[in-house]
Amino acid sequence: METERGTWAVKAGLAQMLKGGVIMDVVTPEQARIAEEAGACAVMALERVPADIRAAGGVARMADPTIIRAIMKTVTIPVMAKCRIGHFVEAQVLQALGVDYVDESEVLTPADENHHIWKHTFKVPFVCGCRDLGEALRRIAEGAAMIRTKGEAGTGNIVEAVRHMRAVNDELRKLQSMSEDELMSEAKALGAPLELVLKVHQTGKLPVVNFAAGGIATPADAALMMQLGAEGVFVGSGIFKSGDPAATAKAIVRATTYFSNPDIVAEVSSGLGEPMRGLDIKAIPKEELLASRGW
Amino acid sequence: MRKQRIGILALQGAFIEHQQALQRLDAEPVLVRLPEQLQGLQGLIIPGGESTTISRLMVESGLFDSIGKLALERFPILGTCAGMIILGREKPPQSVKTLRAMDIETTRNAFGRQVDSFETDLAIPVLGQKLFHAIFIRSPVIDTLGTGVEVLAHLPDGTPVAARQDRLLATAFHPELTQDLRFHRYFLSIISEQG
User: Fold this and answer.
1) Tens of pLDDT, residues A197-229
2) Can you give the residue range of the structural domain that contains B127?
3) What CATH number is given to the structural domain containing B83?
4) How far apart are CA B143 and CA B102, in angstroms?
5) Closest to A257 (Cβ–Cβ): which among B33, B121, B135?
6) Measured between beta carbons, which residues in chain A are less than 8 angstroms from residue B115?
7) CA B45 – CA B10 distance, rounded (Å)
């Protein structure tokens, strides 16, 4: 065959290489360097971390390309960046900048309330959020090469991340145990293409890598999500809103690798100082919840 | 015959894919996260992933020194992508601490960024006539190699992308991402060789 770029295998393949790792939100080249030195497998270049986006209100957009470029120049690990849901021009810009992954993210203010980006036509791979299996399969059908459960970004509260991961797992198990004649009806209920539903029925797992995101603030949070079946974690505000970002970043990387070893999780959790201040989900007005953006 | 017990460095990256390949070849894969887990193995795979992350976790866990020692004792090791970087030495400016076990100098992300990642078919004579479908993801290349190193495959422009030095094996691409098991089988055959 001829040499081919931007194929499904290389898009989904990069996500496979990120597995077992921690992807950290950074807003400056200096933070990116701290993340890389702590052992992050990638960084997410942003103008503000979700906790600050939440506090600032207003419309949150793609970061200034100057920030993204500066971060790309500083680190050798993959650099991701966020575009608004449905904002395919922001995605085109991010692809032109040469970012390694685009996160079509509910953390930014959606640009389209009905349509997500048709991601198949891009050479750059996309990661998208989900709250359940149907949402994951819709995004994959649109071309997402990686999925993350949404959680509730910027809260430092793990409860929504757990809810979404458990929802995906429950539905995966359910689909796998169904008989074939039940799958069409289940595809309709999930709002997902039958082809992907059949695939999941056969394999019992998502066809792409699935990370956990939204609310991870401690090493134990990261290990919890890994034990629940996440293949890696995104940490947004949890690192650079903590008392000691470098130490917290390093500890979360270790806890993600050694997630099934409580002795090591205990060791890395010791003496980290103040984690980010958390938010009770019930205290957030419903219209301010980020996870309900997108469908 | 007893199954070959092969370790797979499982600190970060695509180690499950190597585990599945070895299972399909009826070997016994062992995930290695701590130095004591290297006991009783006949070979080791260093998988693809983020080389900076894997290297740091190797140093902190003590695996860097243990694996470095094994490599000196002719212990068979296969490194794919990040694993290849870790087996050789990185061209300056070095950003990753590597074992320098294999006499190759590598450049990380040699083709550019993710949009430049690609797949292609390679001739790899030691695996037979049939071309090998190779997936390159933010891939390194081998820039220079020592006299004891045999090139197993190169790109049409001559860039070496797979090499062997005695019982050390390195690929810039990801044999674990395809269903073609010939490269893993080749590694197992090196382990079985006498002497």
Assistant:
1) 999 999 999 999 999 999 999 999 999 999 999
2) 5-192
3) 3.40.50.880
4) 13
5) B33
6) 5-6, 95, 98, 123-124
7) 9
